Amino acid sequence: MGIFQFIKKAITKTTHAHSSKKIIVNGVDYPSFNLASELLKTGCYNIIAFIDEEPWSNKTELLGTTLRYPSDIQALIYRYSVDAVIVFEKTPPIFSESLLREINDTKATLVSLNKTDTVTKHVSEVARKLTLSSI
Predict the structure, then answer these.
(1) pTM given for the model
(2) Which segments of 15-96 does DSSP mark as H helices, in order?
(3) Which of 16, 61, 100, 110 has the fewest CB atoms within 10 Å distance of its CB?
(4) Residue-level pLDDT at 17
(5) Quick one: which H or E segment has residue 51?
(6) Does the bond joining 92 to the residue before it have cis omega, within 30 degrees of 0?
């Protein structure tokens, strides 16, 4: 059994089979895209939005999901009952302290990942953080 099948099974056991975790991914670079692709493959996650601050990319799509501005995050969390916001350390757009406080004031889990880790480690860390937050 591969790591992704294992993670899918573990999450399915701790949540209802029909529910998926709603995720916002910060950034549109390769690590963000790669992680989102792998999360979607598990069938346990729904990517609500990618966050990018470039005006020419706002409201365009990546993996069938709309790119939004950082200022939209809190509204997206409330509107879609987002479970987690994923950020990669030292990767633009860099969230301000006030935005990080706003995220922490919601029920969404802030998951910070090291960009240099493997996608397998990223997926495992997301699953771990969301499992811990639901306990």
Answers:
(1) 0.82
(2) 30-42, 73-80
(3) 16
(4) 44
(5) strand 45-51
(6) no
